[in-house]
Amino acid sequence: MLNRRNFLTAAVGVAAATGLAACAKEDGASSASAGGSKAITLGFSQVGSESGWRTANSDSVKSAAKEAGYTLKFSDAQQKQENQISAIRNYIAQKVDVIAFSPVVVTGWDAVLKEAKAAKIPVVLTDRSVETSDDSLFVTLVGSDFTDEGRRAAKILEKVLEKAGHKGAVKIAQLEGTTGAAPAIERAKGFKEVMEADHADDWKVVVSQTGDFTRAGGKQVMAAFLQSNPDINVLFAHNDDMAIGAIQSIEAAGKKPGKDILIVSIDGVKDGFVAMSEGKINAIVECNPLLGPQLMEVVKKVKDGETVERWIKTKESDFMQDQAKDALPTRKY
């Protein structure tokens, strides 16, 4: 039986080793004025609220903007690119100082980004990347290395399999994130790199489909996976919420998550740690959602005309450890 102290040690170890008004729902702007000077106005378009990670990310942006004394115009795209494009055009019309957004998908942004550039409003990407015909259409990206997260998921799976004493073929089901989104593309890519380089003979992704980063999607797609491939013995989920949804389907099928089907996911939210403390998720790779403070630093530099790096990696944090601490009181050991 894993005791509280050992669980926290294990959880931190995993983190280290795996490490619209028009078409979009817009919140009222938070405002402040620092030292009597005009506050920076930031227009921020969020992907949506599809997961625990995304909620933490939105909270981080809102609280950091308030602390920095910026006027924040925040919109929720509800996972629709057309909503996000409408929000960005709305920010251009309002003549905000800086636009930041976490893009729903990778492609299809050139037209609206050219409009922002023509209006001389700098654009900062957060969390996710885009593909553009002109690299000058955005200033920088503040986010995580999703490809490396996929690699780390594969490497931690090696340890999970070893600990479980697994022998023989590894038949993997993959729950992908939203089709066309950077984390879905890049996490799958990184996982595949390690699999093909080190496990070409014994690992195989037998089924792979998007669960749209949601619990409902993970549950529905995993149920279909188990119907078509009942001999799956590993699940790689691109985020914790899909893994949690999948657990419901695994249990409904009479199987034990974490034992009959080993599970590795990415994020590190509280509910993921609850599932891990119950032995239902075997390992979690960290993706830090607390980008707000870094984003506000970048926004100020961009507004002041300072040069910033093209890609700014998310800072390491105690986020996963905090989530583990919050999750532990729900169980006795």
Q: What are the defining features of this structure?
A:
Rossmann fold; 11 helices; disordered N terminus; 2 domains; elongated; 333 residues; 5-stranded parallel beta sheet; 17% strand
Please outline the helices and strands.
Elements lengths: L3 H14 L7 E2 L14 E6 L5 H17 L2 E6 L4 H14 L3 E4 L8 H9 L4 E4 L13 E4 L2 H19 L5 E7 L5 H17 L4 E8 L4 H14 L5 E4 L2 H13 L9 E6 L2 H8 L5 E4 L5 H12 L7 E3 L5 H9 L6
CATH architecture of the largest domain: 3-Layer(aba) Sandwich
Would you state the CATH class of the largest domain?
Answer: Alpha Beta
- H and E order: HEEHEHEHEEHEHEHEHEHEHEH
By CATH, the topology of the largest domain is: Rossmann fold
Instruction: Give the biggest sheet.
Output: 7 strands, mixed
| Overall outline | elongated
Structural class from helices and strands?
alpha/beta
Report strand order across the widest sheet: 1-3-2-4-5-6-12
Radius of gyration: 21 Å
Number of helices: 11
Terminal CA distance: 7 Å
Could you please describe the fold and organization of this structure?
It comes from Streptomyces qaidamensis. This is LacI family transcriptional regulator. Keywords: Signal. Its main location: other. Belongs to the bacterial solute-binding protein 2 family. With 333 residues, the chain is of the alpha/beta class. The protein has 2 domains: 129 residues, Rossmann fold, CATH 3.40.50; 142 residues, 3-Layer(aba) Sandwich (Rossmann fold), CATH 3.40.50. The chain contains 11 helices and 12 strands. The strands form 2 sheets. Strands 1-3-2-4-5-6-12 form a 7-stranded mixed β-sheet, sandwiched between helices. A 5-stranded parallel β-sheet has the order 8-7-9-10-11, sandwiched between helices. α6 links the parallel β7 and β8. α2 packs across α10 and α9 crosses α11. The longest helix has 19 residues. The N and C termini lie close together (7 Å). The relative contact order is 0.15. The N terminus is likely disordered.
